[in-house]
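Priority: medium. Attachment 1 of 2:
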């Protein structure tokens, strides 16, 4: 089932904390190959418009093509380090669960980082489903779809970069007078729920990315389309000039204050940043560093306060959940008016120790040996290697 939203503009109130300032320039028209909308798949959605004969006179009011599509991967990576792209903006403003401003800074100044096979696999999956998402979107919206020409660069601000997924045209706009941006994403239902893919407005991250592309290109509208398992949802966004100015200011500040002078930004509170910091340096055993006494005192004090609040909140949360368990009793599903309001199912982590104690014979029958690293022997024979792969743990003196 298709979900259509229209006129979604500012992605989130949090974005309003950045201040304004973008300039406009003139772009160079690009002649793209003839449009060939995808053929309809079965009976899903209306038929796409007929192909347009002849080249499409596509232009970008405030951008030019910096690197054409299909360029070697090493060229693309090199160009990517010369500016800020759409996914970078999301990370700078804390809307990317896979990394924050520190990760962007690390990439731009050329500090290598460890690869994450899970994230790389997710990126490959998203890239491969991008075309399918665009195809489904074209069928259901009736819009014409063009491949993006490559990496775009703002004509007045060289460090403003854009790599839109696709370009859209209205079916009757064969002269490309009012093109738009299409941002394609693919999600599982679990990740879609966490990112808010069911609201009246497009999710913050993709909407922000699309709006950055409007900032770079000078276009007036964009669409965000998401393929959630086998369901397509999409929204239309109208250009918000105030938001474009705010994004421009945030990018300029990050570029001039951190990337150009090589000064890392202050770490944010994301788990991705915590993991990055744990891997960024190889710890020098027993090495010390003198830090600012006032900042250290304030951070220690703030950490203690948050730890105390965390303990209190965990107690309150457990109390609420215990009351819910008490209401459920021996039932797995609690309902109001026949509709489930919460569940307490017996489908959690298996109690291995309790099972072995209560059912020793059955436990022996279903016990098998598994291969595991002998950490104790590794630490004895290769202490430096053992230490290299141990996690770094942050503690204050009172914690031992």
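Attachment 2 of 2:
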């Amino acid at each position: 089932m298709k979900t259509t939203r229209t006129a979604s503009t500012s992605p989130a109130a949090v974005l309003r904390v950045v201040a304004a300032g973008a300039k406009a320039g003139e772009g160079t028209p690009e002649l793209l190959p003839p449009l060939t909308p995808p053929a309809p798949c079965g009976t899903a959605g209306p038929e796409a418009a007929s192909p347009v004969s002849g080249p499409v006179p596509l232009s970008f009011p405030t951008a030019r093509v910096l690197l054409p599509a299909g360029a070697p991967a090493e060229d693309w990576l090199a160009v990517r380090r010369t500016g800020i792209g759409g996914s970078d903006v999301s990370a700078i403003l804390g809307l990317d669960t896979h990394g924050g401003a520190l990760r962007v800074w690390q990439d731009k100044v050329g500090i290598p980082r460890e690869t994450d096979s899970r994230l790389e696999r997710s990126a490959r999956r998203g890239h491969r489903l991008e075309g399918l998402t665009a195809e489904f979107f074209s069928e259901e919206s009736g819009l014409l779809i063009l491949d993006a020409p490559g990496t775009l660069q703002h004509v007045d601000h060289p460090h403003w970069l854009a790599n839109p997924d696709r370009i859209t045209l209205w079916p009757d706009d064969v002269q490309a007078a009012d093109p738009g941006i299409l941002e394609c994403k693919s999600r599982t239902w679990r990740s879609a729920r966490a990112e808010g893919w069911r609201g009246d407005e497009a999710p913050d991250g993709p909407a922000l990315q699309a709006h950055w592309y409007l900032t770079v290109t000078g276009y007036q509208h964009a669409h965000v389309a998401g393929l959630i398992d086998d369901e397509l949802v999409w929204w239309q966004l109208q250009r918000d000039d105030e938001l474009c100015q705010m994004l421009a200011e945030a990018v300029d500040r990050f570029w001039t204050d951190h990337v150009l002078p090589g000064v890392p930004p202050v770490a944010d509170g994301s788990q991705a940043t915590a993991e990055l910091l744990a891997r960024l340096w190889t710890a020098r055993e027993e090495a010390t560093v003198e830090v600012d006494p006032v900042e250290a005192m304030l951070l220690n004090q703030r950490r203690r306060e948050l730890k105390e609040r965390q303990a209190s909140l965990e107690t309150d949360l457990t109390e609420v959940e215990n009351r819910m368990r008490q209401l459920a009793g021996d039932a797995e599903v609690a309902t109001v008016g026949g509709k489930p309001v919460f569940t307490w199912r017996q489908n959690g982590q298996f109690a291995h120790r309790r099972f072995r104690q209560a059912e020793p014979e059955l436990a022996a029958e279903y016990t098998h040996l598994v291969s595991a690293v002998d950490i104790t022997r590794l630490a004895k024979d290769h202490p430096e290697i053992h230490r290299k792969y141990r996690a770094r743990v942050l503690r204050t003196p009172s914690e031992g």
